[in-house]
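Subject: Predicted fold for SMI1/KNR4 family protein, 165 residues

User T.R. writes:
Posting the sequence so we have a shared reference for the thread.
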Amino acid sequence: MLLKNTLNSLKRQLNKESKLTILCEDGTTTQVQFTFNEPATEKELKKLPCDLPTEYKEFLLLHNGARLYEDLKWGDGFELFSVDEILLHYSYYDDWPEGWLPIGAGFDESLVLAPSKDKRGYIFWMQTGVSFDEPEYIGNLKFDEWFNYFCVAQGAKFWEWDRGW
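User M.O. replies:
I've generated the structure tokens; pasting them so everyone works from the same file.
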């Protein structure tokens, strides 16, 4: 429910060209664009090497990948991979731990699903040089919660904000 609500609310804000003016962390505004792929099929999902969390599978069945907050001036943004892109990025390493999948990229880093026995969340940020042994979890978040917070933060890395106001 959270994922569909967030997607619907976000899409209602977009203009006819799928663009949106957002307020940036430095107080300026910029125009960003969104591209949502067509839904994945169950057949496509079966190509993946592991089971998917329910919330992430729901996203792929709605949109088989997306480009989010793509800055029209600077060209950066965030990409949630399609099934084929997941498989491509997965092929770059031959030692992925069981159940781990690269699902997105932005800010020169990767968003990865990684099951955890001691955490409710399963999403972490894989920076260059990060070991598979020590994932940097983005809080105790499920995919739908991460997506919601990412949209509320207007495409900013909310997980790095200093919340010690």
